[in-house]
Amino acid sequence: MRDIRLLTEPFNPGTLIGPFTNANPGLGGVCTFVGEVRGEVGIEALELSHYEPLTLPSMEELADKAFARFDLMGLLMVHRIGVMHPGEPIVCVSAAAKHRRDAINAVDFCMDHLKSAAWFWKREKKDGHWRWIEPRSEDYADLERWK
């Protein structure tokens, strides 16, 4: 099973993961990562913008790479766009495989790419002011592991 989506509205990861797991009978392991808007002091909102003709096709291409690299049965990749508030999920990536290591590595691989080499522009509103957020050097180092 393969489910790749962009969402403009809040989502509940649990309502996605259960059906995803059930759609992959015979799996040996499922690994899931859910990223949320941090609730640091002063953070009011996070906004993700994107270039629509490129974003979803590029996420599909990332899924292709994950399937080629790891022995997966299924992959769920859901990403929010628009304005979000502290505690709201931004991203959910779940991988199903016969063996846990493929599931764990696939989620890590997808998240490293979504975080550093993705098709999103991110800014946060803190104390009433918007500022752009760039990937950190650690994010780029994480991405380098996969080359």
UniProtKB/TrEMBL annotation:
Pathway: Cofactor biosynthesis; molybdopterin biosynthesis
GO terms assigned for molecular function: molybdopterin synthase activity
Gene3D superfamilies membership: Molybdopterin biosynthesis MoaE subunit
Enzyme Commission designation: 2.8.1.12
GO biological process: Mo-molybdopterin cofactor biosynthetic process
Alphabetical UniProt keywords: Molybdenum cofactor biosynthesis
Catalyses which reaction(s): 2 [molybdopterin-synthase sulfur-carrier protein]-C-terminal-Gly-aminoethanethioate + cyclic pyranopterin phosphate + H2O = molybdopterin + 2 [molybdopterin-synthase sulfur-carrier protein]-C-terminal Gly-Gly + 2 H(+)
Pfam families: MoaE (PF02391)
Domain of life: Bacteria
Keyword Isomerase annotated: no
Record-stated family: Belongs to the MoaE family.
The protein's role, per its UniProt record: Converts molybdopterin precursor Z into molybdopterin. This requires the incorporation of two sulfur atoms into precursor Z to generate a dithiolene group. The sulfur is provided by MoaD.
Record note on quaternary structure: Heterotetramer of 2 MoaD subunits and 2 MoaE subunits. Also stable as homodimer. The enzyme changes between these two forms during catalysis.
Name of the protein this chain belongs to: Molybdopterin synthase catalytic subunit
Organism, scientific name: Altererythrobacter lutimaris
